[in-house]
Amino acid sequence: MIALSLAEIAAVVGGQTHDIPDPSVQVTGPVVRDSREVVPGSLFAAFVGERVDGHDYAPQVVAAGAVAVLASRPVGVPAIVVEDVQTALGALARHVVRRLGATLVALTGSAGKTSTKDLIAQVLQRKAPTVFTPGSLNNEIGLPLTALSATEETRFLVLEMGARGIGHIRYLTGLTPPKIGLVLNVGTAHIGEFGGREQIAQAKGELVEALPEDGAALLNADDPLVRAMASRTKAKVILFGESAEADVRAENVRLTDSGQPAFRLHTPSGAADVTMRLYGEHHVSNALAAAAVAHELGMSAEEIATALSEAGSLSRWRMEVTERPDGVTIVNDAYNANPESMRAALRALAAMGKGRRTWAVLGKMAELGDEALAEHDAVGRLAVRLNVSKLVAVGGIEASWLQLGAYNEGSWGEESVHVSDAQAAIDLLRSELRPGDVVLVKASRSVGLESVAQALVESGAEGEVAAR
After folding, report:
1. Are 160 and 172 in contact (CB under 8 A)?
2. Where are the beta strands (DSSP E) in 314-402?
3. pLDDT at residue 243 tops 70
4. Helices 113-124 & 283-296, crossing angle to 10 degrees?
5. What is the DSSP letter of 279?
6. Which among 257, 249, 211 has a CA at the least distance from the CA of 232?
7. Across residues 210-229, what is the average pLDDT?
8. Per the confidence metrics, is the pTM higher than 0.70?
9. Residue 79: how many CA atoms within 13 Å on its side-chain side?
């Protein structure tokens, strides 16, 4: 964070200082909410959770070097006491952002936010110091913490914004007002909470409504609901996508033999070829979004293409590919799942597995409401249509819908199986995998299927040791 004294911070957040001998002492390190992340100069934000109260760690974090605790009650060590820690954190982030000379880039969408944010960050880092959301910490707590990690040297601040209802993104843009706003897509993620795609579009469009007149709204030309958001902003509109009308577009899109996308990138400043290191054709749209941001910030087509071709995955469990010594390929995409990302992952599996035996280990897609049965059934059917060799549906009723969709699509459905939990899936795969197989593991975060991918990777390592 930019250096601020405890007195300044107290004034910004409307707090009272307690047990602080010298209010002029400065916070020079990061603002953190996890006691394990404290370093000398930190400010520790004490949140009260369902199982853990951060205030209980106050003596420990100060002993570890924290300058003070941002707290909702006195804790017996230096503290700034406020009525609500989350509100105070947001106020501090808003103050710091105003002090920065950085350009704020915000993005949202139903699918692909984190992968796109990682691409944008890797491209912009080639131009100037860039701070970006770690993982998918895109809510009312994660976003301010990211903004507060910026320093005087930061030139670009890339912020992922999530929403579970109307008004959420409006609140986040109030904390960190963006100059550039990017909307990827309007899908069915969280549709059970929103009530429909039109409501999701209403919520996502709050981002472009927050842009200043001299800002830029970057909209997906291939998504009608996103493209329609052009009427909701006074900012300049830039379209990206495969549409011929897009300002930043891809032509000659194809997949390499290993399932990695390649295309000809066109921007208003020129064209260049891109071959990505990531897996799956869905990353083309993500790459075009990142290219639109980079173009708006003055990078050439050649610079953008080079950066996109060299960019990797920065966040765990998102199309994370591991090649085992025995030739089995594990694709860990188990961080989260919705119908759009599930379809994209299955298509990537089909492309990666040409000429090989493919396994789709799938689980529940959460928060789909009344659409849950139809969407799970459709994913099971798609696995059949893509000629995935084996479907392993893991879990309860939603998994049974996946398996039933595959079974009802055709005789191939006999190659699908429904197992009760992750351990049952691990046992099945350990007994049946053969060298050369490709395994996709994907479900909503609550299912915890990353344990399946991790167990399979570890089995491969154990096999290598045994072979030696």
Report:
1. no
2. 320-323, 329-332, 358-362, 390-394
3. yes
4. 40
5. -
6. 211
7. 97
8. yes
9. 23
